[in-house]
């Protein structure tokens, strides 16, 4: 086993080979209730794994082409495979946002990177805007030398027009939260073509991080998974 305290750069390199990146981390404190690590003992540190833009997409497609059968939730499966292999190499336990019982990934991400939620619920990143995601995490039973994240400027605070709340034809996002059923019905319906092929209109209306915007095929993939089309 490689000592994790000296391995963060190597972990980052191993993930980058598949288009994934480390998204920060933190050490659990005495007041936390951390999940178990690799051996079952409470984890002491967590590193978040995710993406910026669509960098993992070509790696995922190559993996998918090699599969001999149709796999439900293929992106989750690919992410588990990649992150799980890295975890095994570096003596960590890999966990996923879709694991049950669910782990507090968004709270972990806010601690790891100091981010805040956008009006759409997605964490706003000062560089990537809304075009990023968390694909998993690595749990270590040793403390890592992780510095606390400094809270970045929250771009939504200076955004007066809030175009992300004005572009959806069924007003799926509002101060009252996400109108899931209205959104789903629209995406599945006769007028939902632009959303199905190009992604969420509210998300695409955000002016930040546009250099990292997912290509239309990636957005269509995620929308199809949301609508189960």
What topology does this entry show?
Elements lengths: L7 H9 L4 E7 L17 E8 L4 H9 L8 H17 L2 E3 L9 H9 L2 E2 L5 E2 L7 E9 L32 E2 L2 E2 L1 H9 L4 H6 L2 H5 L10 H12 L2
Antiparallel strand pairs: 1-2, 2-6, 3-6, 4-5, 7-8
Q: Can you tell me about this structure?
A:
Helices cover 33% and strands 15% of the residues. With 229 residues, it is an alpha+beta fold. The model has no long low-confidence stretch (mean pLDDT 94). A hairpin with a 5-residue loop joins β4 and β5. The N and C termini lie far apart (43 Å).
Fill in the keyword field for this structure.
229 residues, alpha+beta, 4-stranded antiparallel beta sheet, two-stranded antiparallel ribbon
> Biggest β-sheet: count, sense, barrel?
4 strands, antiparallel
Going across the biggest sheet, name each strand in turn: 1-2-6-3
Task: Output the radius of gyration.
Answer: 18 Å
Sequence of secondary-structure elements: HEEHHEHEEEEEHHHH
- Amount of helix: 25-40%
Number of helices: 8
* Mean of pLDDT: 94
* Portion in strands: 15-25%
Low-confidence segments, given as residue ranges, are none
User: Would you tell me the structural class of the helices and strands?
Assistant: alpha+beta
The span between the termini is 43 Å
Instruction: Count the beta strands.
Output: 8
Q: What does the overall shape look like?
A: globular
